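FAQ

Q: What does a record look like?
A: Structure on top, sequence underneath. For example:
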């Protein structure tokens, strides 16, 4: 049957695919719109598979928080080039994924991709977008955080986001302090809130490194453990959030800064999501 420009435009409006792709799909489907849409989806799947080994080092991070600030979610949708990362359709897809994550609290990325977007799943929609845009697209990170007050921060490049959960808020206005701490996390990339949150394997590794450094300096074997423990405390000070020097005022650490805002205010948890 003859495929008209009106038909092609209608399919383009329905799918967002390119004009030539829509025309080819309609020709293949003999004018049947449902079959044409299936054809375009299959094309997307083919593109997705062919780019499966590509690196996705560009993209956007999107956050959502509840009205009472007790819950936050963040997703990182990634692609291959900065050009696509700034594409309106790509950013809209990232926002749609963030909304789904916030509304449904899926267990993980696979569960998020299984959620419905109209008549298809989010995973299928990502495949469609891959076919339309021609780059590998994937949800790289999905994180959820709960607390007395969850404060989000997105760095100006849109590729780095932090969510910080504060506790012992006591009715204080903590948004500005939360932003300060979130920016600290973005800049200094701490490994944990405090030393109790550091993975035991990291502690063991730091002790071994400290011992070996002291050994290389010619220190006696009997004091290597003591020296290593001293170096470990320095590691905790530099690499755990509450002990880090506050970047805006190095005369105090983060816990001291939070105490200055509201006595007892502290951090219960944080998430740092970075692309690239």
């Amino acid at each position: 049957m003859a495929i008209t420009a009106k038909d092609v435009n209608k399919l383009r409006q329905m799918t967002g695919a390119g004009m030539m792709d829509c025309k080819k799909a309609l020709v293949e489907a003999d004018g049947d719109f449902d079959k044409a849409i299936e054809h375009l989806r299959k094309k997307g799947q083919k593109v997705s598979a062919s780019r499966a080994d590509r690196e996705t080092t560009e993209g956007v991070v999107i956050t959502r928080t509840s009205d009472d600030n007790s819950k936050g979610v963040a997703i990182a949708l990634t692609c291959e080039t900065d050009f696509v990362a700034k594409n309106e359709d790509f950013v809209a897809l990232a926002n749609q994924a963030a909304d789904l994550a916030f509304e449904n609290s899926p267990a993980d990325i696979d569960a998020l991709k299984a959620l419905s977007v109209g008549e298809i799943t989010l995973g299928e929609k990502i495949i469609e977008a891959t076919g339309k845009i021609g780059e590998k697209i994937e949800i790289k990170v999905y994180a959820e955080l709960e607390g007395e007050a969850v404060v989000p921060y997105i760095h100006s490049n849109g590729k780095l986001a932090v969510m910080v959960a504060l506790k012992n808020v006591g009715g204080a206005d903590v948004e500005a302090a939360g932003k300060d701490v979130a920016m600290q996390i973005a800049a200094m990339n701490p490994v944990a809130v405090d030393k109790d949150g550091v993975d035991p394997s990291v502690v063991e590794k730091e002790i071994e490194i400290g011992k070996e450094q002291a050994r290389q300096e010619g220190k006696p074997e009997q004091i290597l453990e003591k020296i290593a423990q001293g170096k470990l405390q320095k590691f905790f000070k530099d690499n755990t959030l509450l002990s880090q020097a506050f970047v805006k005022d190095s005369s105090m650490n983060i816990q001291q800064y939070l105490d200055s805002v509201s006595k007892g205010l502290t951090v219960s948890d944080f998430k740092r999501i970075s692309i690239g």
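Q: Is there anything notable about this one?
A: The mean pLDDT is 94.
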